[in-house]
Amino acid sequence: MTGTDRTAPAPGAVPDGPDSAVPLLETRGCGKTFGGVIALRDVSTRVHAGEVTCVLGDNGAGKSTLIKILSGVHPPDSGEYLVDGAPAGFTSPRDALDRGIATVYQDLAMIPLMSVWRNFFLGSEPTLGRGPLRRFDVAGARRTVREELRSMGIDIRDVDQPVGTLSGGERQSVAIARAVYFGARVLILDEPTSALGVKQAGVVLRYIAQARDRGLGVVFITHNPHHAHPVGDRFLLLNRGVGMGEYGKADITREELISLMAGGAELEQLAHELSREDPVPEPGVRGKGTPEAG
Amino acid sequence: MTVAADERLAGTGLARRLLIRPELGAVVGAAVVFAFFAGQSETFRSIGGVANWLDPASTLGIMAVAIALLMIGGEFDLSAGVLTGTTGLITVILATRYGLAIWVAMLAALAVALLVGFLNGLIVVRTRLPSFIVTLGTFLMLQGINLGVTKALTGTVQVSGLRRAEGYEQARAVLAGTFSLGGTEFRVAILWWLGVTALATWVLMRTRAGNWIFAVGGDDRAARAVGVPADRTKIALFMTTAVAAWLVGSIMALRFTSVQANAGLGQEFVYIIAAVIGGCLLTGGYGSAIGASIGAVIFGMADKGIVFAGWDADWFKFFLGAMLLLATLANRLVRRYAEEVRH
After folding, report:
1. Cβ distance of B341 and A167 shorter than 8 Å
2. CATH superfamily of domain region A43-275
3. CB B338 to CB A168 under 8 A?
4. Domain extent at residue B81
5. Does residue B41 fall inside a structural domain?
6. What is this model's ipTM?
7. Is residue B341 one of the residues assigned to a domain?
8. What residues of A are in contact with residue B223 (Cβ under 8 Å)?
9. Is the model's pLDDT at A98 over the cut of 80?
10. Taking CB atoms and an 8 Å cut-off, how many pairs form between chains A and B?
11. Which of B202, B218, B227 sits opposite A111 (nearest CB)?
12. Among B20, B208, B222, whose Cβ lies nearest the Cβ of A111?
């Protein structure tokens, strides 16, 4: 593992207060219902270039619905979705992609049995020649992938190895590099660290920072405040489909983030429930303490 | 066995690299089978013997390569064997009963083959039913048509007399003739087979379509998510298989000048077995056209080798089963290896 120089998030880059630049993406009071179920209600957030917007929430908080709106799968039922300050009007994910909004899904990122370079260019293969002799520029593709990954500081031994032999973190990193290469201005990352161990998650967080430093706007969806806090510039909290406010990095500590995410009072309640009434030093020696024994 | 030994050594770069080649199992298998029969029979290892066992390998190989592409794309075609009979029957019937020139009759058969392939593909991508079931349906329907139409037209279960058709000699020279190499006559079908293998390998390894074939077989949803035209790719693969069936059907019809109504029946599994021996995974996304061709060579050698060695031809079936089992086990190791670091 070669150590890449880790760029500390610059405090000055946090655009709190009135924003001068037009955000790349903006939702204003967005909502979405499926049948009778309100999946998302009144969510407002912004994504700026060179900034990471973290979307935090527990399972069922509406994170996936928000991704689907941002990536053009569903239009919002209420509120506004603006891209570069103008209504998005996406009818398919392709529209979003054409505007430079790339989504990396946790499970759909790569095809395990195909090599890194084949995966990297899948669907957008560079070609040489024309007519029936039009062919995949294999040498060029290999070279480009090697260079791209190196410039992102991704250390892949061999671009010919099947993606299935990469670790989960490496796979997410390659997917991020791919989106960056294909001209993404906004990167939407769906739970890129959720299935990873601590070390692997660190690898992915580093590439999120890399993408940010290249001037991309990043939407980082996660349920893990420990992953979100070090890399995020602003934090959108979702709970049961409702936006619970957006915070700049300076406005919130990691502990507050954790507490807000778990619903504060709920967590205290849980802590109370789980705490022992009196400490039992040797559990299991004399069986479980019976209620009458108290 | 060899593969298992390599698997344990998988820490070294070269072993890993070799192991990941889909053709490896087939190459080892072919070498073993050749050595075995060459030791049993002198005729087998003579140049005349080689020409002899390359003959069945060639027609089987054309089909195995097409089926391999389809399997890499994640689908099966059980109707391919019977379709070789259907196309042969159409050509012979049109040329002998309706007096069409042989090339015209063959073009008509090609059109029917393309239609069958297109329908197979369309039903599979539209309904998302397993292609195993869909093509089992077309397989049985074609089998019924082959028998029914042949009986209705001739009162027997075969059509013959292609020799009298206009353009027969010319077509035969192109598709079913022989060529001389070092004083030995080889079947022209061998050249077609080599050409098909080379073309399929080029498409697979060096074109966009090849990348899409691997992708739709490896993970259909992931492929669609990055904009691969998955439905078009799959339909094209079914049509390619149908064209291969037409080519083989025509070669057979021209060689024998007659076609049995049950021609090609039972061959569909041999194609799949040859492709699997050549390294194709039954689950799709992995395999090789060259491997499938080598798989076909193994069959050609066994088919003729058993005869040369003076054994009962019934042993061929036993051999077929044993090869399939060994190849599937070897392929499973490859897949495990390719995905071992997943989590």
Report:
1. yes
2. P-loop containing nucleotide triphosphate hydrolases (3.40.50.300)
3. no
4. 51-270
5. no
6. 0.84
7. no
8. 111, 122-123
9. yes
10. 86
11. B218
12. B222
Chunked mean pLDDT (size 10), chain B, 343 residues: 37 58 82 90 91 95 98 97 97 94 96 98 96 97 96 92 92 94 92 97 95 95 86 97 98 95 93 92 92 94 89 83 82 67 41
pLDDT of residue A186: 93
Nearest CA in chain A to B287: A113
Give domain status of residue B7, yes or no: no
**Tens-digit pLDDT profile for residues A183-201:** 889 999 988 888 787 888 8
Which candidate in A113, A117, A128, A196 is best for mutational testing of the B interface (most B CBs within 10 A)? A113
Contact A111 B214 (CB under 8 A): yes
Determine how β-strand B184-187 pairs with β-strand A217-222. unpaired
Distance from CA of A113 to the nearest CA of B (A): 6
CA B83 to CA A162: how far, in whole Å? 36
d(CA A179, CA A168): 17
Q: Are B258 and B50 in contact (CB under 8 A)?
A: no
Mind giving me the DSSP string for A149-166? HHHTT---S-TTSBGGGS
Domain boundaries, chain A: 43-275
How many domains, in total, are found in chain B? 1
Q: Give the model's pLDDT for residue A52.
A: 94
Q: Is A134 on the interface with B (CB under 8 A)?
A: yes
Predicted local confidence at residue A217, as pLDDT = 93
- Identity of the residue numbered A116: V
Coil, strand or helix: which one is A102?
strand
Quick check: is B233 in a domain? yes
**CA distance linking residue B337 with residue B239, whole number of Å:** 33
**Chain A stretch 152-211, residues whose beta carbon is closer than 8 A to a beta carbon of chain B:** 162, 164-168, 195
- Per-residue pLDDT reduced to its tens digit, B325-341: 887 787 777 667 665 54
| Residue B14 to residue B5: CA distance in whole angstroms | 13
